[in-house]
Amino acid sequence: MQEEIESVMAAVRKHHALFENALPLIASENITSNTVRILLASDLSHRYAEGEVGNRFYQGCEYIDEIEEHAINYAKELFEAEHVNVKPTSGVNANIAALFALTSPGDKIMALSVHDGGHISHSRYSVPSIRDLKLKNLPFEPQEMNIDVDKMVKEIKEYKPKLILLGGSLFLFPHPILEAREAADEVNARIVYDASHVLGLIAGKKFQDPLREGADVVTSSTHKTFPGPQGAIIVCRNSLREEIDKAVFPGTVSNHHLHHVAGLAVTLVEMKHFGAEYAAQILSNAKALAQSLYDEKFDVLCEHKGFTESHQIAVDVRGYGGGDSVAMKLEKANIIINKNMLPFDKSPEEPSGIRLGVQELTRIGMKESEMREIAAFIKRVVIGGEDENRVKKEVIELRKGFQHVQYCFDGEDAYKFPAAFSF
Ligand SMILES: *Cc1c(COP(=O)(O)O)cnc(C)c1O
Q: How far apart are CA 293 and CA 299, in angstroms?
């Protein structure tokens, strides 16, 4: 093989080997079933299908129409939604489309700030600036790691935003949609709920139900707790259908990623069958990991509230050198996590915390007892200062028993380089 190509292939093979032997705890990642992996490499990845099902700008879309229609219908059923758009190619793309549809330049909106858990696309660095919106941050109660409900209601009535953006990236507890809805109705505001992190829990009916609680629109990526291919969906009421669809195509997407739409359709079916069981195990694993870390003397946030009601836990690691240094030490032991800002942090340069998500470990079959083992590994590296290589050997040993994707119909050798394409 060409040397230059071989060097790319070698790096990909090494990447596979790393994740086969590591503990992936990044809260925004997951792993797909083998059927989905095959679809991602299918001919669909070469094609264009601008337009809507049954009304395309390109020929050759007969079966693409069938696939997209399946994805839309399965999503409508799973989320009990009137309308679904499966075209946005990422969560940020979905947020851009939703704000394009529902706001005009100069409008006022409210969203969480990044250090309180809001996503970067909710901040002035991103979508609100693209649309020239006036952004006010939602009030946050750090002790509770949630929006301050009384202040929020008061501020919505005073500020009179056109749109309220709920949901976030550090997202431990359900957001107060019902209360926001009441206040929003008084000032005629729309509510967009960004479910990117928690869509898999919503699919399993183990988190809040944003559409029933009062969100007008739900935007979401499809690859965090929802274990599908990278991409996004927008879910809304029929009354907003036209605005949302136009804002996606031709507004902010030209060609959507058809191979990802096929993968999404399959993942929706997997979640229909296994979602409830999968989501319940995620919650139980998150609580078990949080409790074990707390027992090991880590400062896990929100002990008084049972630590978490999602897949995530947040730990204040200022006492151990801060988020950056802890994340790098753990990486040497093949424990993959990320540093994270906490509400009292002023600068994104020195985050005080780490964020852990258990959705991928759950997807490969780990349960509460493995969470306790993992907490002990983390303690040995971070508090005990033990040689990371020694812990890494035990991590690799533990991982040997967890190489298949669960909660799907076919998930053998989940981290192997796909056999059909190996060289
Ligand atoms: C991850 C995330 C996004 C962005 O999703 P991408 O698919 O990476 O573009 C948007 N919103 C929230 C709340 C997120 O956590």
A: 8
